[in-house]
Design brief:
alpha+beta; C8orf32 fold; 4 domains; 6-stranded antiparallel beta sheet; 4-stranded antiparallel beta sheet; 26 helices; 48% helix; elongated; peptidase activity; hydrolase; Papain-like_cys_pep_sf
């Protein structure tokens, strides 16, 4: 039957269960990338327009499925895709836009998240219609494999960009597999009639001879084959979804003896940062710093808040030894020299760095800081010159709100799913504030005074800032900084999440030792005409006590860590009572940073509780239970392995090997029949199978069977025609079969 006739036959067939299931599976297959795109749209703004475009694509595919031929449908999809790419290029602010598009595409295919693209909302709106239209159109036309190609391509792309999580990827893979499976059943029931009354393996044996004992329905065989394939093709993607495609960070900073550390949680993420639960502290020395004054040694900042973490948008550029821009306000110069005391992948510096010299080479991040092009080895040194903002409270109060469009767009962004109560609570708390500076002071002070400091917290399931603001009593620096930035953004004040190290342990007049547990997160707020100003909402006293205790615990073995050329760091010396204040007078003397002093100079690493740090090893270690996602993947992987083994024949061969070599005794009749079948299997393997209609005696004569086999055949004849066999006869039959099998 020709293809058009076949299509007409299918169109006349009423919708059956297989077709409905195939369409539901297709919806799941395309739903996985749609879920990812919805999340991306929600993070950067209102997803309503995205939902409208997706709905229009579904409706269009449904209306055109019966009237539009497949080649034209492909052309429509191509036009939608090309139009989306064109719209994206035309709205890119950089020039040349084509170059940026190509560089972004390459970066995305090698593990860069779409959230790192500044125009991600435009990208999603441009990309969404084509795969949705093509997937649903071909599913309605019953071209199920083609439909899954469109959905699978979109899902694979989001998996490569790491935007599709494990659960989303797994759901998409299940949907694709189910679409193919149920689609095969649907087409089996509507294709031109074929002789499906016999399974292929029911009509012929392994040697090509007819098998008369196994009758069955062809569609049942097809159904079983489809289900086996369905499970088999899940295992590989499920396993691959457990493997990270790429990592942005150069090195891991985890202390393996204590698990994930604060430092690791802040810096291993590279271009993105996920808020975690409880983590531990590491006293490992990272840098020694020579500087005329202590500062917060800044590593990076993040502008895009996702609700459960942070992302830095934009692309880094190579540093060409040219002086970077200073802050717009009045500044003074600070020189710092860093020496790496361990292998590490960051180049901290006081904000705002303008010059760099040393090894390795560095790039300039999108927010204007330095990031290394390669890891630092122990002993590597580099020098940074920074321009420190000189500002006064009065100057910041008078800065106003004349923000440029780019700053407003980047640094007031919040996920659309951010609860309204965050902004409502912030507005109430800051009702008496007359300007952004006072608003920032109120929020900073409120968090310091009302929230406790703890290194042992349960990570919220949803929006971190909302949970910390309303449901949590304690947290560590990441929670404080995330919440303050979110609160300020609800009031239209540009703010960003910043990570780095506090000043560290002072070991000389102008020298500091910076440890892993000095890692910290704080807040930077933008003021027109001034630039970015540091605020630290994390209460300093409790975190200092935890950090100092951790250092003393690490030194309890009697050994002293060394730095530089072997100079010992024998004991912890608390820093000055106030650490780098963000506000200084023009003469260089420190002033009251705010009504509530800005931060202390100690670490704000996160980690386990004091008990977990000081009483390490005194409690029974209970293995962490696998997460729901890990359990799901484990079950799916096991099912896939089992189905794959069955489909490849491995499970059958294994079963046959056990069945052949081991006979469990049941009763004389069953034992004799089983022994006979075992012997016949060996004979079929060594000679040939019994032909259809060929008697047992004729078959044994044809292959020249020996007396043992003939005796076994005689015992079976007595069973079949005499009706009864004795226990002794069963013993004899099993013994004969065992001997034949052992000689195989």
């Amino acid at each position: 039957m020709s293809a058009p006739v076949t299509e007409r036959v299918r169109d006349r067939v009423p919708w059956g269960g297989s077709r409905i299931l195939a369409l539901l599976a297709t919806a799941l297959a395309i739903g996985a990338p749609l879920r990812t795109m919805y999340y991306l749209s929600d993070v950067v703004g209102d997803p309503t327009l995205f939902l409208a475009l997706a709905a229009l694509s579904f409706v269009g595919a449904t209306l055109l499925a019966r009237v539009l031929r497949p080649p034209l449908a492909v052309a429509v999809g191509a036009v939608l895709f090309a139009g989306g790419v064109g719209a994206y290029i035309l709205n890119l602010s950089t020039n040349p836009a084509i170059t940026e598009l190509l560089s972004d595409t390459v970066a995305l295919l090698t593990g860069r998240s779409l959230l790192q693209i500044a125009e991600v909302r435009l990208w999603v709106l441009s990309f969404a219609p084509a795969p949705v239209f093509l997937t649903w159109y071909f599913a309605l036309r019953r071209w199920y494999v083609t439909a899954t190609v469109a959905a699978g391509t979109a899902l694979a792309f989001f998996a490569l960009t790491t935007d599709a999580g494990v659960v989303t990827t797994l759901l998409g893979v299940v949907g694709i597999a189910a679409t193919i499976g149920f689609g095969t059943l649907d087409t089996l029931s509507t294709d031109e009639p074929a002789d499906l009354t016999k399974r292929p393996d029911a009509m012929t044996g392994s040697d090509g001879t007819e098998r008369a004992d196994d009758d069955g329905d062809g569609i049942d065989a097809g159904r079983r084959a489809v289900l086996e394939q369905l499970a088999a093709i899940i295992v590989v993607p499920a396993a691959l979804s457990q493997v990270p495609i790429t990592r942005d960070s150069l090195l891991s900073y985890d202390d393996e003896s204590e698990g994930q550390t604060v430092e690791g949680s802040l810096f291993d993420a590279g271009e993105s940062l996920s808020v975690r639960g409880s983590i531990s502290l590491t006293p490992e020395i990272r840098y020694t710093v020579e500087s005329e004054e202590p500062r917060y040694w800044r590593v990076a900042s993040y502008d895009r808040y996702t609700g459960n973490g942070w992302v830095r948008t934009g692309n880094p550029r190579q540093y060409d030894d040219q002086r970077l821009d200073s802050p717009p306000g009045e500044t003074r110069t600070l020189r710092q020299e860093f020496r790496a005391e361990s292998s590490i992948g960051t180049v901290p510096a006081a904000w705002k760095p303008v010059r760099y010299s040393g090894e390795p080479s560095v790039s300039v991040s999108s927010e204007g800081g330095f990031q290394p092009d390669g890891p630092l080895s122990t002993g590597d040194t580099y020098e940074v010159r920074s321009e420190l903002l000189v500002a006064t409270p009065d100057g910041l109060r008078a800065a106003g709100t004349d923000y440029d469009d780019t700053t407003t767009e980047l640094y007031t962004q919040l996920p659309d799913s951010t609860p309204d109560r965050v902004g409502e609570r912030t507005a109430i708390l800051t009702a008496n504030a007359e300007n952004p500076y006072e608003t920032a002071l109120v929020v900073e002070r409120w968090l310091q005074n009302t929230k406790g400091y703890s290194l042992n917290v349960d990570r919220p399931d949803f929006n971190v800032a909302d949970a910390f603001l309303f449901e949590m009593d304690e947290g560590y620096c990441v929670y404080f900084a995330t919440t303050m930035v979110t609160m300020l953004r609800t009031q239209g004040i540009p703010a960003r999440m910043t990570v780095g190290y506090t000043s560290g342990q002072r070991i000389d007049e102008d020298q500091w030792v910076v440890r892993g547990l000095n890692s910290h997160a704080w807040v930077e707020v933008y003021f027109p005409g001034q630039g970015w100003v540091q605020f630290d909402p994390t209460p300093s006293g409790p975190r200092e006590a935890v950090r100092q205790q951790r250092i003393e615990d690490a030194s309890s073995d009697g050994s002293s860590p060394t730095v530089g050329d072997g100079n010992p760091v024998e004991r912890y010396t608390p820093p000055d009572t106030s650490t780098p204040a963000p506000l200084t007078e023009t003469n260089g003397t420190e002033t009251e940073p705010t009504e509530t002093p800005t931060a202390t100079g100690t670490d704000t690493p996160t980690g386990t509780t004091e008990a977990s740090d000081t009483d390490e090893g005194t409690e029974l270690s209970i293995p962490e239970l696998p997460s729901r996602e890990e359990l799901t993947l484990g079950v799916v992987a096991l099912l896939g392995i089992a189905a794959g083994a069955r489909r490849s024949g491995l499970s059958e061969r294994a079963y046959r090997a056990v069945w052949l070599r081991y006979q469990r005794r049941v009763d004389p009749e069953t034992d004799v029949e089983r022994a006979f079948q075992r012997a016949m299997y060996v004979l079929a393997t060594e000679h040939r199978g019994r032909k259809s209609g060929e008697t047992v005696r004729a078959y044994l004569d044809a292959i020249g069977a020996d007396d043992r086999v003939r005796r076994l055949a005689t015992l079976r004849e007595r069973l079949r025609y005499g009706g009864e066999v004795s226990e002794a006869m069963a013993d004899e039959a099993v013994e004969i079969a065992d001997g034949i099998v052992s000689e195989r």
